[in-house]
Each structure stands twice: as structure tokens, then as C-alpha cells.
Amino acid sequence: MHNTKYVFVTGGVTSSLGKGIIAASLAKLLQERGFSVTIQKLDPYINIDPGTLNPYEHGECYVTDDGAETDLDLGHYERFLNIPTSQANNVTTGRIYQSVINKERKGEFLGKTVQVIPHITDEIKHRIQILGETGDYDIVITEIGGTVGDIESLPYVESVRQLLWEKGHENAIVIHLTLIPYLAAAGELKTKPTQHSVKMLMQSGVSPDILVCRTEHQISEDIKRKLALFCNVKQEDVIQSIDAETIYDVPNLMLDEGLDTVVLKKFNLVSKQEPKLTVWNEFLRKHKNPKHEVEIALIGKYIELQDSYKSITEAFIHAGSSHETKVNVRWIHSESLTPENFEELLKGVNGVLVAPGFGDRGIDGKIKAVQYARENKIPFFGICLGMQMAVIEFAKNVLGLVDAFSTEMKSDCKNPVINLMESQEKVTEKGGTMRLGAWDCTLVKGSRAHNAYQTENISERHRHRYEFNNEYLNQIELKGMKATGTNPKTGLVEVVEIPSHPWFVGVQYHPEYKSTVLKPHPLFVAFIKAALKQSNV
Ligand code: GLN
Question: Which residues of the sequence carry a binding annotation for ATP (predicted)?
Fold first, then answer.
């Protein structure tokens, strides 16, 4: 039997310390050492998944190939590891309770009283071990969302305690991520909050094996000694995680600190090779030493929280590095774009990206941004709602269908160039009911998309309800916008382009989810190339 090792990552002191990045960096190093690794995130909220959450709550909703709507940390896992994740990689309290309650209704508990311990904790333990039981992974890293001490995290910490006991310390360990604040007035780094959070963890019966300490300043050996003494860890197991210029520096920082080595030591595992990070470091070198610069306008309605567009901004970084180009984003709120000011707000950009979204807020601004890019021959990239807006703008301003719209925003519109798929018409529940996950698409040879991908058959991830209305396809194509990608089975339009424009591409799917450090997404690479060309005009 495959002896999978388990690493649990907990967080203390405060949220937003970057557990996801630490988990992904450790996984990257272990992967470079020849181990197969995956990462899982347990989210303690009651929503079944983040699909129904407003992006202002937790940022972007990430989508996997198997159609799971997940936490944005899974995006980091994929970008770092270059391997796909799935529904099993993200579990929420809602999902745990849902399965326990479903079992109760089926009578599976044989008349027993159903309780947090053991029934909820058993379900959590089962979900943690699902990935290990596939036999595909040497090491599974499980990130426990939230902060130790939160009421909602308690069943998770208890499940970790049980698993540590059942599996033994050579098979399961805990990394606790904490903050070492710097008090400017005292000129000192303070360890007390870490001591308290470790104490809190210990009250639940869990002792950390490794402490990873977020800090703005170097942590001295003295401080490490102190932390080791108070927190029951060895001094070598106190790892500094100093603020980095970019998240992509963190694997190298963790390598220098020896996080991967101490983890392997605890597991009695011998590394097959030293981490080289060759491609990674080449990406970093180009990212940090750009020879060119472009400015891209990103038009969206959630721009107050930039995490809402995490995968898009990361895809810019990957594609930018491949061209040794710094991509500066000009964040433009779609609601702020008006017929009076759009030219002024968009002036000077080398590319326009109209972002995904839902509902009618800011729609007119998005349409104006498309018009600006189309008329001024500025490279344009429309993603999902952005593609739908490109079709609407073209129908309105080129075909002269002034009332063209999407039935999402105007259910009785006369020219629904974007409308609901038939299969969606009867859907009433919001959660998990969109067209989700990976779908095939066939590209037209010689199109911009085909040139970018260098292949005719692609598969990309979706998250939407509305579609290009094929009743308008002929009219639209006659006027110069072409459908250059379609689903081979359903005929649904996946990609539209305007061949007479320098680079105008709209995609119904979300290419940003599949961009990784090792494999920048071809459409982002092509878009940045077009923007670079535009910047030299
Ligand atoms: N609101 C649109 C739809 O449901 C687009 C969704 C998106 O941009 N992800 O079709």
C-alpha cells in the first residue's frame, strides 16, 4: 500500500499570513525533489462552496477541470505545481455537514445520535484521506482555513489531532504559521502572540512540529531559540518567512531556510534529488528584469478587491515574464466609465481586458471599453462576460441592432444576442448549476486563437449560464466578427475574433485558470505580445 505522508498547515495570530503560499512553496520544493505532492484546502464556512459568494467576500472563485467552484488558493496550488486540482482539493464545513446530514436521512447511522465528534470529525478525516487513498501522492498537504482559536475551526483541529495520533508522527506533522510583529517604538520583534497561538493549539491537543514565522525583519537565532523553548519545537524547526517582493520568491526563501529538509527529516524520507527550480528561476529572472513595459486596462466591477481577479493578474505575470515585459494594470471600475469620460480613462493603454462578471452593474461601462478598443485598434481580450459584451457591442454598433443585449440583463430584450442555454432555462437553484469545468473547443485554423494555441483542439474551464445566440451568427460573421472556436458537440460559440483588428479576441471560457509559472497561458502570451506591438507604434 502507498504510504502517504500528511502535512497539516494551521494558522495563528491573524488571518492573511499566506498559508496557501507557504503550502504551495513547500509542495513545489518537494515536487522538485521528486515527490508527488498535492495540496488541499479546508474552509470552515457553511457555504457548500464559494460559488455563491460575492467576490468581495473571499476574492475570486476558482474553477477546476471537474467543475468544482473553489477557493482561490487552489489557483496558487495549480500555478505553483503545474498539476490540476479537483473537487477533492477543497472542502467546506457546509459540504461536510451536507454529507453527514444526507447519511443521517438515509438511516446510515443506525439510530445513533449524530454528533460533531465522531460523525463530523470522521467525515473531515475521510475527506482529508481521500487524496492519499488514490495512491497518486507521496505527500498530501492540507491547509486548514481560518485561524486557530476560531470556533468554526475547532472540528478541523480536533480531526487533525485524531489523525496525528492514528498515523503517528513519522506519517503526519503540523506546520503552524504565525506572525512575529515588529514594534517600531520598542525596535523589537515580538514572540508573545506566537506563544499564545501555539498555546491555543496545544489546548486542543495539537503540538506544532514546525513553526513558520511571518516577519518584516530578519529573525535572529536568539529569537528562534526563545520560540523553540516556549513552543516545544526544535530551534532548527523554527523557519523564518520574511516578506517577499513577489509570492514567486517564496519557494526559494523556504529552500534557503530549509523548510523542505526539516519536513523530510520528520518523515524519515530521503530526497531523490536536490531542488533545481531551473524553469522557475528563469521565469523569476525575466519577471524581475523586464526589458519592456505595457499598460493594460482591466475593466471590472469588483476592482476594490483585486483578489477578485487573482488568476487574471497572475496570468499577466506569467505571460509578461515570457516576453520579458512588465505588465502594469490600469484598474478601471466599469461603473466609472461613462460615454463622456471613457476616452480619457482609457487613453494610452496598450491593451484592454474586459473581465468576467455577473448582473447588470457597470455593464454600460464594459460596452464602452469594448467600443474604445475596437475602434482605436487597441488589443482587446474579453473573458466570459467580457466576451459577451464584445458581441453585444458589435451587434449594437456595427450591425445597428441598437437593442441588442443579453437576457441576463434584460430578459425581454428584442435582440438577445446572448441568451440562456435551453438546459439552463428550468434551473432555479443558484449553487453549482452553471456550465462549469472543462469543455472541448475546436479552433478555426489560421485564427488568432489557433495561432496562439498552436493546436486545433483545446479544453478550457467554464463558469457561466449565458451563451452566444447562434441565431445571430450569420449576420455577425457577415459584418466581420468571426466565431473561431466552437464546442464540437453542441456547436456553442467559445471564441469570437475580429480578423481585421490587430488583436481582438473574446472567449466564453476562463483561460486565466490554466495559466501557470511553467506554462503561461497561450492567449495571455499572445495578448501581451499584441500589446507590446501596440506600445511600439
Ligand atoms: N454572467 C455571465 C453568464 O452567466 C458571465 C459569467 C462570467 O463572466 N463568469 O453567462
Answer: 16-21, 73, 244
Each residue of 92-115: pLDDT tens digit?
999 999 999 999 999 999 999 999
Q: Whose CA is nearest to atom 3 of ligand 1?
A: 464
Q: Which residues touch 365 (CB under 8 Å, ≥6 apart)? A: 299, 332, 333, 334, 335, 336, 337, 338, 342
Task: Give residue-wise pLDDT tens across range 265-323.
Answer: 999 999 989 999 999 999 999 999 999 999 999 999 999 899 999 999 999 999 999 99
Closest CA to 424 of 442, 404, 405, 407: 407
The finding on whether 465 has its CB within 6 A of some atom of ligand 1 is: yes
Three cell numbers written together for 40: 488541499
As a whole number, the mean pLDDT across the chain is 95
466 lines ligand 1 (CB under 6 A): yes
Which domains can be identified in the chain, with CATH numbers?
5-281 (3.40.50.300), 291-536 (3.40.50.880)
19 annotated binding-site participant: yes
Is residue 385 in contact with ligand 1, taking CB distance under 6 Å? Answer: yes
Q: Is the dihedral of CA 35, 248, 49, 167 positive or negative?
A: positive
Whether the pTM exceeds 0.90: the reply is yes
Q: Read out DSSP for 315-374?
A: HHHHHHHHTTEEEEEEEEEGGG--TTTHHHHHTT-SEEEEPP--SSTTHHHHHHHHHHHH
Alpha helical stretches, state H, 106-167: 121-133, 154-167
**Cβ neighbours of 111 (radius 10 Å):** 5
Core vs surface per residue 76-86: b (16+ CB within 10 A) or e: bbbbbbebbbb
